[in-house]
Design brief:
Binding site for 5-phospho-alpha-D-ribose 1-diphosphate: 95, 99, 121-129
Family: Belongs to the purine/pyrimidine phosphoribosyltransferase family. PyrE subfamily.
Oligomer: single chain
Strand content: 15-25%
CATH topology: Rossmann fold
Strand order of the largest sheet: 5-4-3-6-7-8
Number of helices: 7
Cofactor: Mg(2+)
Subunit structure: Homodimer.
Protein name: Orotate phosphoribosyltransferase
Number of strands: 8
């Protein structure tokens, strides 16, 4: 768990996670905001994160148990690309909507019937974008059993993926991050309570 504490501290120090009052893309109010798109700007930490993710996948499911890595633009795709290079695995990605020119397909990359893939994303809130991607993959007979995210906001993604028979794994969740920061007196009791209340909703 040393990585979790270190990574949480890094996220806080660099302002990648901010506490306050925010409105998310979905229109929901949040007591914090996490923007993992900033992580690749810090190559040492970015590489550590990708290596940690690689080890988790290797231990949990085995790198030989799936054909390709899949992601959704844009946040998750940067992480998935780095992971594909480290693991020497093919990479495919799912557009949020099919392109309206050329071949107009929603799944990009080399695919074949019955292939097994592992889904990668940066942050999971309700799981909406990943759920849509999984449905697009199933339409072309691609099987997803596991999805990995860096940060789980714990607001319904696990359950949403579970309904599609996909197991969600996260490197860390918002409660672990906030508690690690609280232990180091980097955030106060009030912030910790706000985050706990938001999860409870």
């Amino acid at each position: 768990m040393e990585f979790v504490k270190e990574f949480a501290t890094f996220l806080h120090q660099k302002g990648i996670i901010k506490f306050g009052d925010f409105t998310l893309a979905s229109g929901k109010k949040s007591s914090y905001y996490v923007d993992l798109r900033l992580v690749p700007s810090y190559p040492q930490e970015f590489r550590k994160m990708v290596k940690y993710l690689e080890n988790e996948i290797a231990q949990n499911i085995g790198l030989d148990k799936f054909d390709s890595i899949v992601s959704v633009p844009t946040g998750g795709l940067v992480i998935a690309s780095a992971l594909a290079i480290e693991t020497v695995k093919p990479l495919i990605y799912v557009r949020s909507k099919p392109k309206d020119y050329g071949t107009s397909k929603s799944v990009e990359g080399k695919i074949h019937d019955g292939m097994q893939v592992v889904m990668i994303d940066d942050v999971a809130t309700t799981g909406g974008s990943v759920v849509n991607a999984i449905k697009s993959l199933k339409e072309v007979n691609i099987s997803v059993k596991d999805a990995y995210v860096i940060v789980n906001r714990m607001e319904g993604a696990d359950e949403a993926l579970n309904e599609l028979d996909v197991k969600m794994h996260s490197i860390l969740n918002i409660l672990q991050i906030t508690e690690a920061l609280h232990e180091q007196n980097l955030v106060d009791d009030e912030i910790l309570e706000k985050v706990k209340n938001q999860i409870a909703k």
